[in-house]
Design a protein that fits this description.
Blueprint: H1 9-19, H2 25-49, H3 58-89, H4 110-136, H5 146-178
Helix pairs in contact: 2-3, 3-4, 4-5
């Protein structure tokens, strides 16, 4: 007869599986480094824009601002993935007493993360598409071809439809779980 306090092969295997969640930690650390890179690009874009502020047309300033908005949305998306992914899949962040802790932290589950991700992707895609449309009227040979533009619209619409379908699936799933 085996000792009940002695871990079995199954128990050790399950402990190893549970510990494997920490393999995700370096990935979240690399996402933090990617956020640093995105911040550097944001600052570079801002610095490049400043000398031309007085010479910019309204369209050029809107395009420059849309670029900054695009970058900040991508940064927000990365933060959301970092915090939510780490808390849901690796370990809880022990910062409950921090007064500047965002309200959503610890409350966004995987389903909520999917919806926030797709909505951010749709917003980023929409801003990029708007920038391309605004640049069309300025001529030049470096603009997108009609086929490229059509493909960009199709991809954006695919993101929108995916987002609606994900929201619908979560809604149906929540309704089914409530019954």
């Amino acid at each position: 007869m085996s000792d009940p306090k002695k871990p079995t092969i199954e128990t050790r295997f399950e402990q190893a599986l549970f510990a494997s969640r920490w393999l995700m930690a370096p990935m979240y650390l690399c996402l933090v480094l990617s956020l640093v890179i995105l911040t550097v690009i944001f600052v570079r874009e801002t610095v490049a824009m400043v000398p031309h502020i007085l010479d910019m047309s309204a369209d050029e300033s809107i395009l420059a601002i849309l670029t900054l908005i695009d970058l900040s949305l991508a940064g927000n998306l990365m933060l959301l993935v970092i915090f939510t992914g780490y808390e849901n899949f690796v370990s809880k962040l022990d910062i409950e007493d921090a007064k500047d802790r965002p309200d959503w932290m610890g409350k966004v589950d995987f389903s909520g993360l999917k919806l926030k991700l797709i909505s951010s992707v749709v917003a980023i895609s929409g801003i990029h598409l708007l920038k391309v449309f605004m640049e069309l009227g300025h001529g030049g040979d470096h603009g997108p071809t009609p086929e490229t533009l059509q493909m960009m619209v199709i991809v954006h619409l695919a993101f929108v439809v995916s987002g609606v379908l994900l929201a619908l699936m979560d809604y149906i799933s929540a309704k089914t779980a409530a019954h």
